[in-house]
Amino acid sequence: MLTRGGTIGAMAQDLSSLRPHIALTPLDGRYRSVVAPLVDSLSEAALNRARITVEIEWLIHLTDHDVLPGAPTFTDDDKAYLRQIVADFGAEEIAELAAIEAETRHDVKAVEYFIKRRLAAAPSDSVLPRVGEIVHIFCTSEDINNLSYALIIKDAVKRTWLAAAQGLVDDIAELARATRDVPMLARTHGQPATPVTLGKELAVTAYRLTRQLRRIAAAEYLGKINGATGTYGAHAISVPEADWPAIARSFVEHLGLTFTPLTTQIEAHDWQAELFSDIARFNRIAHNFATDVWTYISLGYFRQNLAAQGSTGSSTMPHKVNPIRFENAEANLEISCALLDTLAATLVTSRLQRDLTDSTTQRNVAPAIGHSLLAIDNMTRGLAGLDVDRVPMEADLDGAWEVLGEAVQQAMRAASIAGATGMEDPYERLKELTRGRKVDASAMREFIASLNMPADVEARLAALTPATYTGYASRLVDELDADTRG
């Protein structure tokens, strides 16, 4: 017997009716523990708390600067009472605000009424019960929203995401330093190529990710508070003697944001697009890293530490420990990038002076950053469960003596330039020896001996092995520390 789409038994309970509510998305369900810190920054409740903050700080700012003729001056106790409204914003207040919004059908207007209730309940010997009309004065909803979003995104990135991302990069850099001298066969185009060290390859990733973190750490978070179409029209007609652009600038900077002097009704959100593009680029570099580590695990260069991974592996093949941390990271990075790309593309556009596409779009900042945070957690855990296995790395190197063809060819060129004879056509001669053929140590050394190179050059090449043909790879890992100092 089938119901609801023809697949569920007739007696199945409607899960949407259960209380407490069952999470619809994995971020709020299966992976809640990992992304929970973002709730304090990017949830709807956090957004409303930020709106309350902006409204209250605007109220205090106007009275502190004597902007409004006849407005009272707040005492320290008055300001403490107002700011305590933000500090006390919890479960009961969230429910109350939701009830108000159910009546107003407008989220920012609900915040205004919520604050006015608190003002009415202030001590009778305070001026606060008499200043209700100052709340939200000269503000359009976007004045409050753009500042609130800037505050919560800044908080999420700087307090949670950046710390996790930096931790991952630090772990990669630490592993790079530990494996700086571990030789490894490179594979350009998937084919054996000039050897490197494992540490140098890890250092490349750490360096790339560090550059992106610097850009993200230096991001500007912009804001405005200039009225319905960005002209301070109501401000100027109501209180013409005030320098409203200067007041707006000082307020935005008081919030720790960068002032935007020219806007339509909305702050253009260009800064958000820039930030989300930078995080997406970090994600893509991290994705590249995850796929490379997956490949190194497949090659046996990394062994997965069963205790650290805490993984069952395959449900039917007990010998397997699947690299699920890196596979999960790949998937979450792809989802994050898709959302971040959409945010970056959509938020920079608005019809004429205002449309509401940004309102819906910005509500997806949380899952965009949440999936990135989840991927970072996966990779951090995955790295912690890896052990380097030098045996297969050494075997691969010893089976690829043909990679020394590059060294021999270039040494022949240099010797020829220095005046040695018989060094003609080095590329062609090495191609004949090595292309499409496996070359062992004996064959390579026999070929080197046949070239009649200068004695010092021949000795250098004869002593060379794939494992020692790593150039400055080990030393290059030091660039991580030099880059940090710079």
UniProtKB/TrEMBL annotation:
Q: Which domain of life is it from?
A: Bacteria
Name all Fumarate lyase N-terminal domain ranges: 29-329
Domain Adenylosuccinate lyase PurB C-terminal: start-end pairs: 350-470
Enzyme Commission (EC) number: 4.3.2.2
Record-linked Pfam families = ASL_C (PF08328), Lyase_1 (PF00206)
Q: Does the keyword Lyase apply?
A: yes
Keywords carried by this UniProt record: Lyase, Purine biosynthesis
Which GO BP terms apply?
'de novo' AMP biosynthetic process; 'de novo' IMP biosynthetic process
Identify the InterPro entries for this entry.
Fumarase/histidase_N, Fumarate_lyase_CS, Fumarate_lyase_fam, Fumarate_lyase_N, L-Aspartase-like, Pur_lyase, PurB_bact, PurB_C
PANTHER family cross-referenced by the UniProt entry: ADENYLOSUCCINATE LYASE (PTHR43411)
| This protein's name | Adenylosuccinate lyase
According to its UniProt entry, this protein's organism is: Bowdeniella nasicola
Instruction: State the taxonomy lineage.
Output: Bacteria, Bacillati, Actinomycetota, Actinomycetes, Actinomycetales
